[in-house]
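Our preliminary data section would be incomplete without showing what the modeling component actually yields. Below, a chain of 274 amino acids is followed by its predicted structure, encoded as tokens that our downstream tools consume directly.
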Amino acid sequence: MKNSLSIDVETWAYGDTPEFRNMTSEQRKRADNGYLLDSMRTVLRWLREADTQITMFMVGEQFDWYPELVEEILTDGHELGLHAFRHYRIDTVSELRQDLEKAMPFIQKYGIKGYRAPLIHLPDGGFQILNEFGFTFDSSTYGPFAMSGTYHGVREIPITSLMASSRCPALTLPRHLSFGNILTKGEFPVGASYFVGALRSGLSPVIRHLNKRNVPAVFFLHNWQLVPRPRGAFPTPSYVFRHPLYWPLTRNLAPAFQSWLREFEFTKMSNLVC
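Predicted structure:
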């Protein structure tokens, strides 16, 4: 059974604080100080050793920061997806269109066909906009794999949720991580990077369970969950102490990641589109 493990390529300097949100692209690159490039080269090496090609969702401004990384990803046979031009929550179709217009040079140059919204938050009407810009698949929702389908010309591949009920919910946008859904609807978005961080090696039984039912697991994580961030980088220990929900995102997933590569088969996300 082929599963989807994708990487949202990000820098720790995308921290969700006013300090980082107000930075210019150049300021973020200076703050990153090469971490994104170095960490991704480590991840690429692990994938090369496992002879595995997957999908990497890159933020548009990174194509200008590290064009050599883009070429290394493609040379290794991985698939490029877009993770918006700027890493911030997109709430309206107008914001989505404006963001994609900025990313169009990269979309066209590299023939990018896949999209993932920052914070897994695609606004209502988002599929129509993605279709306008030539995207053929998207992974910006949580849900069971049975929810996958073509919506307004775009194939949606939801990030795995386990449902208390066998009934497949209807797909409405936005369909993001909601602790309310967990508590009231019994929907557990196990494929979210947050819960991947919480479970670590405990994710393996979930993948085996899904595969035994002939269902692929679709989950994602970030390069900064695999390669330690510089000392003092966001989130600092004091920040996590004040915001304890950040804790799962600070756990090192490298051993679990390498174990998954040995045990399971992963493929590019577009290969799940049928």
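The chain has one domain: 2-272. The first helix runs from residue 18 to 21. Preliminary results of this kind motivate Aim 1 of the renewal.
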